[in-house]
Amino acid sequence: MPHLERLLYASTATGRTDSLLNMATILAESQRNNARDGLTGTLAAHDGRFIQVVEGTTSALDALLRRLAPDPRHRDIVVLDRRPITERRFTEWTMASSRLGPETAPVLERLMATPDTSAAEIVALLHEALEIGQSRAA
Ligand SMILES: Cc1cc2nc3c(=O)[nH]c(=O)nc-3n(C[C@H](O)[C@H](O)[C@H](O)COP(=O)(O)O)c2cc1C
After folding, report:
1. Rounded to the nearest whole angstrom, what is the distance from the C-alpha of residue 107 to the centroid of ligand 1?
2. What's the average model confidence in pLDDT over 100-105?
3. Residue 42 has pLDDT above 80, yes or no
4. Which pLDDT belongs to residue 63?
5. pTM
6. Given a cut of 90, is residue 101 above it in pLDDT?
7. Domain boundaries defined on the chain
8. CB of 54 closer than 6 angstroms to any ligand 1 atom
9. Is the pLDDT assigned to residue 95 strictly greater than 70?
């Protein structure tokens, strides 16, 4: 069985992250490609920054990073963590989008500003943001 890995990165948006059209376009492309490539994860955008968790095989993640790097919609990609995992955390989502609420955004900002924050904490927070979003929508 191919090894699964989880990638966590942050980048700086070049366009507006509060534009629904910008976000919907990125999500639609991501969902189409990720379904094909067996990738799952979530993308959060806040205040001109993206933070994304993606899970999949080593080769699918390498291919994604090669496409992400030259994408003019963001710059300054910083890989915060990449590690082998035994199971997926975002199984149900080819690419979810967590709208960061008033409680989540400041916590995430604080975590990202702290160099020794474990990636696990950031991933857990993004997962939580997704669940909050879902229960609000329900
Ligand atoms: C913040 C951000 C996140 C993205 N996430 C993904 C993703 O999860 N999967 C994906 O295939 N493309 C993603 N993209 C788009 C890629 O950079 C690239 O444009 C796309 O994969 C090319 O797809 P195509 O070969 O079908 O044209 C993302 C782009 C941005 C700006």
Report:
1. 26
2. 79
3. yes
4. 98
5. 0.91
6. no
7. 4-137
8. yes
9. yes
| Alpha helical stretches, state H, the chain | 20-37, 58-68, 104-113, 119-137
121 lines ligand 1 (CB under 6 A): no
φ and ψ at residue 49, rounded to 5 degrees:
-125, 145
User: What does the block give as tokens for 31?
Assistant: 């969902």
Q: Is 34 in the pocket of ligand 1 (CB under 6 A)?
A: yes
Tell which CATH architecture fits domain 4-137.
Answer: 2-Layer Sandwich (3.30)
DSSP β-ladder status, 4-13 and 74-85: antiparallel
- Please return the burial class of 2, using the count of CB atoms within 10 Å of its CB with bins 0-12, 13-18 and 19+: exposed
Token code pair at residue 6 = 């989880």
Residue type, 121: E
Distance CA 114, CA 112 (A): 5
Counting from 1 in the atom list of ligand 1, the atom nearest the Cα of 11 is 1
pLDDT band at residue 26 using 50, 70 and 90 as cut-offs: very high
Where b means 16+ CB within 10 Å and e means fewer, 60-87 reads: bbeebeeebeeeeebeeeeebeeeeeee
Pocket of ligand 1, candidates 12, 25, 26, 94: which has the most ligand atoms within 8 Å of its Cβ, to mutate?
26
